[in-house]
Amino acid sequence: MYLVTFRIDPGEYDAEFHELNDAIQAVAEQSDAYRGKRTWHDPDSDEVLVVYYWESQDALDAFGSDSDHELAKQRWTEWYDAYEVTVTEIVDRYGSGFGADGDPPE
Questions:
Q1: In this structure, is residue 97 part of a structural domain?
Q2: Whole-prediction pTM
Q3: Which end of the chain has fewer CB atoms within 10 angstroms, the N or the C?
Q4: CATH number of the domain that 66 lies in?
Q5: Domain residues for 61?
Q6: CA-CA distance, 6 to 86, in Å (whole number)?
């Protein structure tokens, strides 16, 4: 499994951002290898972390080359003050107490 952490310092969102963002999310959700996402907001700043769960690197690569996703990457300065993407391969996972909440979201 792979985690893609999208760290953003949001700027101003407009209607075009929301349309493009919804289209990109729909593409992700259509992939059998997409497992969901979780979002966190830093209470002391505007920073947001979104963690996406993917089953394979191939599916992640295909998602990254989607035309709407490519367009959004080219236009990021219109909507974000800063961003960072980190792709992590999970090699092990353990813990206790989260129950079903510890699993990737469906």
A1: no
A2: 0.81
A3: C
A4: 3.30.70.100
A5: 2-92
A6: 7
